[in-house]
Amino acid sequence: MPKQILMTPGPTPVAESTLMQMALPVPHHRHPGFKKILHEIREGLKYLFQTEQEVIILASSGTGAMEGSVVNVLKKTDRVLVVQAGKFGERWSEICKAHGLAYDEIALPWGKAVSPAEVKARLDRKNYRAVLMQATETSTGAVHPVQEVAAITRSRDTLLFVDGITGVGVFPLPFDEWGLDVLLTGSQKALMLPPGLAFACLSQRAWEATKQSDLPKYYFDFAKEKKNLEKDQTAYTPAITLLVGLQEVLARVRSQGLPSLFAETHRLAEATRASVKALGLELYAAEAPSDAVTAVKVPAGLDGEALVKTMRDTFGVTIAGGQDQVKGKIFRIAHMGCITVFDVIAALSALEMTLSSMGYRFTMGAGTGKATELLGLALAGKSK
Question: What's this model's pTM, rounded to 2 decimal places?
Answer without folding.
Answer: 0.96
